[in-house]
């Protein structure tokens, strides 16, 4: 599932190819997309120029001088630029420009497309979101954790608390911080919460330059391989369902 680093990569793709570019049409072979339809997208976006897109958590907000396009990538969504006229069987929407096409490709179809008249309707599309995990400052992060009683993983996965973290980034953050994913957030000391903040920033700092969650050979994925061992203590990693997601952790290092 695309997480903050992936969506940052999509933001760069959108900026490179669509930013400052004139929309000549919108195509889809589907009568309905999640939350809108191709006919409306084509009618209202054609002739408009996209500005610089911005990312908040896992959401991509693409403004024009008029309507606002909002994208969420679900479990398998991605953006692909091509100059080819023929689409891919998993394309859900294609933004057409004079010099090529930007494809929203989503095999599982769980991504969503919203078209807003302006940014005042943004929260209706996204729901309440906490501060972006990459941009949040330490004091604001600690304030968001205050009074939270859920398990550490569940709290960090809650987009209304901190926006952008997903299964991979949370597992890596908790491993770096030596905190068990079931540990009650309310039991963490001020020092442990500060360590958690630093661990989150380190995980994102390592993956953001790549514009994606690494596919292999990185902490985020090494921690989630069957039979993998902890890079610190070399004991076999454990896994189980925590906060509704398959979770990997070191039972020795993460108390």
Give the helix/strand class.
Answer: alpha+beta
Total number of strands: 10
* Stretches with pLDDT under 50, minimum 5 residues: none
Which radius of gyration do the C-alpha atoms yield? 20 Å
CATH-level-4 superfamily name of the largest domain: MutM-like, N-terminal
Residue-averaged pLDDT: 91
Give me the CATH fold name of the largest domain.
N-terminal domain of MutM-like DNA repair proteins
List the domain count as a whole number: 2
Topology pattern, helix = H, strand = E: HEHEEEEEEEHHHHHHEE
Strand arrangement, major sheet: 1-6-7-5
**Estimated helix fraction:** 25-40%
**General shape:** elongated
Q: Outline the biggest β-sheet.
A: 4 strands, antiparallel
Gap from first CA to last CA: 27 Å
CATH architect. name of the largest domain:
Alpha-Beta Barrel
CATH class of the largest domain: Alpha Beta
Strand content: 15-25%
Total count of helical runs of at least 4 residues:
8
Chain-wise SSE layout:
Blueprint: H1 4-17, E1 25-27, H2 38-45, E2 54-56, E3 59-63, E4 68-72, E5 77-82, E6 91-97, E7 100-106, E8 112-116, H3 122-126, H4 138-145, H5 152-157, H6 167-177, H7 190-207, H8 219-222, E9 238-242, E10 245-249
């Amino acid at each position: 599932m695309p997480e903050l680093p992936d969506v940052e990569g999509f933001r760069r793709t959108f900026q490179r190819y669509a930013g400052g570019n004139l929309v000549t049409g919108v195509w889809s072979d589907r009568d309905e997309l999640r939350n809108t339809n191709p006919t409306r997208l084509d009618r209202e976006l054609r002739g408009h120029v996209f500005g610089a897109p911005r990312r908040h958590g896992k959401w991509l907000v693409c403004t024009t001088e008029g309507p606002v396009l909002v994208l969420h990538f679900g479990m398998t969504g991605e953006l692909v630029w091509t100059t080819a006229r023929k689409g891919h069987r998993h394309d859900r929407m294609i933004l057409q420009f004079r010099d090529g096409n930007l494809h929203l490709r989503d095999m599982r179809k769980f991504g969503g497309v919203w078209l807003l008249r302006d940014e005042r309707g943004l929260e209706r599309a996204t729901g309440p979101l906490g501060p972006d995990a990459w941009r949040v400052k330490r004091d604001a992060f600690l304030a968001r954790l205050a009074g939270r009683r859920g398990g550490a993983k569940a709290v960090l996965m809650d987009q209304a608390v901190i926006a952008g973290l997903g299964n991979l980034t949370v597992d890596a953050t908790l491993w770096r911080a030596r905190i068990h994913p079931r540990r009650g957030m309310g039991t963490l000391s001020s020092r442990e919460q500060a360590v958690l903040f630093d661990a989150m920033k380190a995980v994102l700092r390592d993956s953001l330059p790549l514009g994606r969650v690494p596919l292999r050979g990185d902490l985020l994925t090494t921690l989630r391989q069957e039979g993998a061992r902890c890079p610190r203590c070399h004991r076999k990693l454990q896994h189980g369902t925590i906060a509704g997601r398959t979770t990997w952790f070191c039972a020795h290092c993460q108390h």
